[in-house]
Amino acid sequence: MTISSTGQNIDAPTRRASRGPSMADVAREAGVSSQTVSRVSNGQNNVDAATRDRVIAAMQLLGYRPNSAARALKTGRFRSIGVIMFTLSTFGNMRTLDAIATASAQAGYSITLIPVALPTQGEVAGAFSRLSEQAVDGIVIIIEAHILDRADITLPDGMPVVIVDSDAGSRYTVVDADQAQGARLATEHLLKLGHRSVWHIAGPRSSFSAIRRTESWRTTLNDAGAPTPEILYGDWSAESGYQHGLTLGAQPDVTAIFAANDQMALGVMRALHELGRPVPRSVSVVGFDDTEESSSFWPPLTTVHQDFSEVGRLCITALLHEIETTAHETGTTIVPTRLVVRESTAPPASVR
């Protein structure tokens, strides 16, 4: 036993907790250099798979946790991406968020989600500020409303940003599914079957994607010389589709309906069933999104497929490029859509 000049036992355990495992401890356990451990901790790709697995196993065995704060100070990166969303309730937003989270994780980034109560400039600016304070490297914004399309609305400079579903490609990086193509394919399909015109149940007036689909539906009818019926506006819900379906189903001249999403199409088909107008023998119905359930509707729904996984992946690819190069690039990347033909559409009775 060793006694200090003050009479204290200096061999006794100190009150301070013992240090945790270090990078050097992991390196010894894995049989690699500390530089290799650092590369694995930082998510760098210049380590072969077998070595990476050995380092990760050593980290887990020793309980080593990389110091993210120190790493951020050294690299200037927080390995975190912020996501601002208006609503989690729509199919498209949830699928896009899922794809963003998957692509971020594969790139070694975590995500921080900030939902906003209302799709307004003030709400978006507030969420943007909160994410900036939480030390994210870049931000993805998923907002349906036309608040980022107007020239008088801007986001603060200095933060890499990618926007989903917007017409702001002249000022920001935008990724979007080809809404116009999808609506054109749906409308042309019904016209080619022999329907005189196509009635449209649109999404909310404030929605960018809904407006794009409506404009394309109208243009396609005009180009074909077909009558353009009055537009009915829904709120993406099956209930709104049902109510409008009751209205349209009561009109004998209505033989083809294009609903702006699958949920409203489901409501339409329920209303037509109740009115004794079988689908597609009396009325053909087309939706938009190609949800997992659409093939199980009765009859199975003809719809427009959106590749939400590709939209999410391209968002992260574009954002990471801006983060890594610090180059602010503008423009819109469009992901193609395609028509999935099932049993809810057929020629009208008059041409069979």
Short description:
The protein contains 11 helices and 12 strands. The chain is α/β, with parallel strands linked by helices and 352 residues long.
| Amino-to-carboxy terminus distance | 103 Å
- The CATH class label of the largest domain is Alpha Beta
The shape is elongated
Secondary-structure element pattern, one letter each:
HHHHEHEHEEEHEHEHEHEEHEE
Discrete helix count: 11
Q: What is the correct CATH architecture of the largest domain?
A: 3-Layer(aba) Sandwich
Classify the secondary structure makeup into a structural class.
alpha/beta
Count of individual domains: 3
Mean pLDDT, all residues: 85
Strand content: 15-25%
Topology, number of strands: 12
Instruction: Strand order, main sheet: write it out.
Output: 2-1-3-4-5-11
CATH topology of the largest domain: Rossmann fold
Cα gyration radius (Å): 28 Å
The CATH superfamily name of the largest domain is: Response regulator
